Amino acid sequence: MGSDVSGRAEAFGRLYAQHSDQLERVIRRRLGHGASARDVMQDAFLRLWEKAVDAARLTPAYLNRVARNAAIDHVRAEAVRRDTVRALADLQIAPSPPTPFDAVASREELDAVERALTALPSRTRLIFLLNRIHGRTFVEIAAGLGLSERAVAKHMAKALSACERAAPRD
Questions:
Q1: Could you tell me which residues come within 8 angstroms of residue 82 by beta carbon, excluding any fewer than 6 positions away?
Q2: Where does the RNA polymerase sigma factor 70 region 4 type domain lie (predicted)?
């Protein structure tokens, strides 16, 4: 078995010596740059070795196809890496702190919503606060106030509409 492996290694060595430069050119044309063409070509030969392909059966046409496929795989992998790095960079960018103008605008918006809520009928305001502040469901609110769920939904719609009118968004 040891001579089998060494014979295979010798055959692959000859194949590499005969075809590596030409396959590197194929890959370089596909990639558009030469920096990684030799690495991709070596990876292609490594794949052939790992698949235990008989070197004697490898035709130049087959080797060209392997080289083209390795280049395509490399381009795809680079695109995935680039997209991943971009996505991670986007996640790592911290939002800028609010400006004094933003703080004043937020306070004014909050004041307008508070005025709108104060102007609502007391039952509508209570339903809004129970839902949005205290986290009660429409079912719980309806049961607690002796109303139907539909009535609670109408009160909530009225309260939300008042809040939206009071603090319009861009």
A1: none
A2: 111-163
The mean per-residue pLDDT over the stretch 110-127 comes to 91
Return d(Cα 122, Cα 158) in angstroms, integer: 12
Q: Per-domain residue ranges for the chain?
A: 2-92, 100-166
Q: 3-class SS at 135?
A: coil
- How far apart CA 29 and CA 130 sit, in angstroms, is 67
Question: What is the C-alpha separation between 53 and 24, in angstroms, rounded?
Answer: 20
Closest CA to 31 of 68, 82, 63: 68
Assigned fold of 2-92: Rna Polymerase Sigma Factor; Chain: A (1.10.1740)
In terms of pTM, does the model score above 0.90? Answer: no
